[in-house]
Amino acid sequence: MPVITGDKEFFKGIGQIKYEGPQTDNPLAYRWYDAGKTVAGKTMKEHLRFAVAYWHSFCGNGADPFGEPTHLYGWNEKGDAVARAKDKMDAAFEFITKLDLPFYCFHDVDVVDYTNDVADNEKRLQTLTEYARQKQAASKVQLLWGTANLFSNRRYMNGAATNPDFHVLAHAGAQVKAALDATIALGGQNYVFWGGREGYMSLLNTNMKREQEHLARFLHTAKDYARKQGFKGVFFIEPKPCEPTKHQYDYDSATVISFLRQYDLLEDFKLNIEVNHATLAGHTFTHELQVAVDAGMLGSMDANRGDYQNGWDTDQFPNNINELVEAMLIILEGGGFQGGGINFDAKIRRNSTDPEDLFHAHIGGIDTFARSLLVADTILRQSEYKKIRADRYASFDSGKGAAYEKGGLSLEDLREYAVANGEPKVVSGRQEYLENLINRYI
Ligand code: XLS
Ligand code: NI
Ligand code: NI
To answer: pTM (2 decimals)?
Structure first.
């Protein structure tokens, strides 16, 4: 992949990041991510489909509720909104091509400042869409998904599609239309809905049933528009239980799947699972993945991690090989992502202030996933992992167990079997054995 810079090079002194293997001492090289290497019938690049998130890497500035910006990187600084946005896009494509990654993702407001004038806003976005189209053509970088930010503007303080005021909902519609147009124009492969403020702060002022019906109607309306424009990609819902609202309607995988089923959206929508959202919901990441896989709905994932010592969406870069091996086992066994990939919805810490830190963060996350893919593939091919799990259910493979699974036994039949066969044997679940097995292959 060619490195694409604008008039100015933002990451001076850093060239293209290459695979050098596990033995290298070079911190600006991949030790495990060897894009063209074949694993389980596909290249690493095809399995992992890494994407850089525009918002954290090029819009985040290190500011937090207690302090001012610390990431002073020199893009998005000079000129009017469009000039600054082009500058920022130059930085983004330089970064993505230096990492040699295939995809990026954005919200409308990430690429260019939002204005409250609908037509003006559309014009700005169209200008940057054209700029992005040229950059994509020159670099071969593709858009994994686009989305609209329906949570930052003050008009969305009570939600967008679930806002009690139809006038606000209409503005959300205008924004989604423009974001879909941009996504389609850029050949975006998917489109995401994350329900930022689609929930409530207090039930005292909330008609939950009506709000959820409005959300479903909104998703149908957006989907119908995109399909009419020829969009063939997948729509993703990204579950999250809370933050910024006290309760978000797209709480977790199971809640979203039943919502999609209830409102007849299963055909077009799949899930985008985010690690830190899973833990906020009181689940493991693997739980959320498994629920999605079992429903045939694993579309994509947002990679990050939380902090064990506090309970908010810290969006740290992934670095835990053990947790990611368990995740890759589920993703591999489940047949991979449907349409999506691995988007780094993660940010460097406020006090990680060097532009180089953005590289270290991504390289670390990318390598942890690549290594986890290799380990998981070896476990699936060489170990007794799958067999141990299958054997636990062997009693349902034949005889009365199999008949029961097919619906052929009554409650009286179960009683008869219990009486005839006496007390069942005590059988170990072998959890520690399996945990050791995972570690053995790492
Ligand atoms: C916030 C979400 C957000 C979505 C895109 O917690 O993760 O970044 O991925 O709107
Ligand atoms: Ni998040
Ligand atoms: Ni996310």
So the answer is: 0.97
